Amino acid sequence: MTRSHSLFISDLHLCESRPHINQLFFAFLTQTAIHADALYILGDLFEYWLGDDTLDQHLNQQVALSLRQLVDGGVSVYFMHGNRDFLIAQQFALSSGAQLLSDPTLIDLYGTPTLLMHGDTLCTDDVKYLAFRDQVRDPQWQQQFLAQTIATRIAIAQQARDLSESAKQEKSVEIMDVNDTAVAQVLRTQHYPRLIHGHTHRPDVHTHIVDGHECQRWVLTDWYQQGGYLRCDADACVAKRITSQP
Ligand code: LP5
Ligand code: MN
User: Which of 14, 60, 222, 225 has the smallest number of Cβ neighbours within 10 A?
Assistant: First the structure.
């Protein structure tokens, strides 16, 4: 079997209440991802992650096991945090076999420098979100959060979800999209790579001209209604949709 291609996914938001999407994901792993060199998960694999001590919960265990089977099948699996699952840590990595990536990470993708991000940090007009992000990415805050019982953490996460949903009602769609200047800045800093990210749930490919360099920005699809992934080889990237089991 020739591999020579890699797959990119994000924003699956896996949770017990969407079993159809969970099944779509497991089928994607065994039928599609198994043929790739690598699978890159660019954040928000889970609807939320309350700490690696929840790895024994049914869905979490199933996901870790299915990723481990993919790794055992010869596929490298990489995981980058999203804004829902930023608490994924070493125990998850050990149990799933996924390698944790920092955000951003620059890779050489079959000869094309490619920058990987979750995408939330590009939404620089969303200052309230970025303040929230600073708070919950603080190691001391995380330590205190993880010291709470799981029941307390569920209650805090639910409260945060409710507050987030009402905050979003007051934000324009532009505020919640990437800021072009922020995109240009990151592309400039990283010497004009191709960019792949998720988070905004606005799948598309954009062209940014930065200092005369043409850079492609691929935005991954979410998996709320259906699945989807980006497939890249040495020639090109192609976005694919999965409407039923692939
Ligand atoms: O998630 P999504 O796509 O709907 O919206 C995001 C931004 N919101 C968030 C918040 C998360 O949804 C909250 C759930 C995280 C679960 C993690 C579990 C463990 C940690 C628990 C954390 C307390 O990321 C949203 C963006 C939007 O993307 C588009 O980019 O706009 O940002 C906000 O809505 C943030 C608000 O503007 C301000 C913050 C409200 C939350 C305050 C929580 C306080 C916690 C209370 C603790 C006692
Ligand atoms: Mn996100």
Answer: 225
| Topology annotation, domain 6-242 | Purple Acid Phosphatase; chain A, domain 2 (3.60.21)
Of residues 230, 240, 246, 241, the one with CA closest to residue 5:
230
User: In the chain, which ranges are E strands?
Assistant: 6-9, 38-41, 76-80, 99-101, 105-109, 112-116, 194-197, 204-210, 213-219, 227-232, 237-242
Residue 246: predicted pLDDT: 46
Q: Which pLDDT belongs to residue 18?
A: 96
Q: Using the atom order of ligand 1, give the atom closest to the CA of residue 123.
A: 30
Q: Is the entire prediction scored with pTM above 0.85?
A: yes
- Out of 12, 83, 84, 148, mutate this one to test ligand 1's pocket (max ligand atoms within 8 Å of CB): namely 83
**Residue nearest (by alpha carbon) to ligand 1 atom 3:** 199
